[in-house]
């Protein structure tokens, strides 16, 4: 087994597979169905219950249908690249692990550090959203939390801590501690209920569709459709967390591509179906509200269904938060197993093979951010981190196809020199259109990561230790 040296030392694929299958590996308990539910759980949340109405009202009008088609296709480009990697390298760490094999340790650390920020902020943003939605639901029953504990630290508004955000993070941490088999079953149940609620809206709402509401179909022109697609693209990006589960799948080479692509396909169908019915029920200018799906049902006097939709929204946000926390724990596990973070973080329980310290670290991070830090502008960092990972994976799949054509691939990206290019192009377009402040914060986090690597990671790297032993 040959190793390259210095900062661009690459982890051989057989070594990565050995890590995933050895004593340090996680419990293999998930199926293709569990992976599909994991992907749907990550994608179907605030996007379908909130973003559909906002994009229709502000950007695309009834042509939001086309926006979701275009953004779904763009996201599928990256999903195909993830599927090929997942079928070759069934190990935790997702894009971090893939880049370690293709580009080397320093680049892998940069991407892993970037994903820590992405998942950490995503957990916090979603937890804060869950809290806000629940409190709105509570008001309908005449209940209200004291202002001081209703939102993150903002003395000007009289808020100091978001208690409900800390509660949901604690509960989901407890679910993760129960083991991957038990926690995936709980996620499956919540996702099935959520899908049922979405389908209930589509079926009931279809009886109240007025074709006249689809006219004009493209009120903001094709430019509005493209703008809507750029916004809607961000509703799909949670699927990448599915690849974090590679090491815990019984038949990863077969099931990972199925889970990634089928979850994206189901989500795309649901987004389009909701968009068609929603814009047919209510004139699009009226959909710029915080709960457009429930609003549409109240608009046609179907308040009982609106109540179920509110339940579906709560479950939708819950599953998104669960998958984001799950992805964060497996990322911490993979990076620390490689020695780039303290090895203790990768310690597993003997019985359930659960990374306890990784889960506790994720719990602390999500709790502190969601409870005390207002995350309005910081939320864009979630998007830039995900888009960066998509670009790296899309380039990496081409590089590995050229350098290692001998590797067995149970799934191959079709049109290898076209689809990854389109993925890079679409993700790059979205990245350059993010705000300058987002880029500055991203670069600051990047610099902090470099310092940590050269102070700690470079010296404690497991791969580095193996290289030094072979040189003696």
Automatic annotation (TrEMBL):
UniProt KW DNA-binding keyword: no
Pfam families from the UniProt entry: AA_permease_2 (PF13520)
InterPro entries xref list: AA/rel_permease1
Annotated membrane topology: Multi-pass membrane protein
Superkingdom assignment: Bacteria
Compartments, record wording: Membrane
Record's keyword terms, sorted: Membrane, Transmembrane, Transmembrane helix, Transport
Ranges annotated as spanning the membrane: 35-57, 63-85, 106-133, 159-177, 189-208, 220-239, 260-284, 304-327, 356-375, 381-402, 414-432, 438-458
Listed name of the protein: Amino acid permease
Native source organism of the sequence: Sporolactobacillus kofuensis
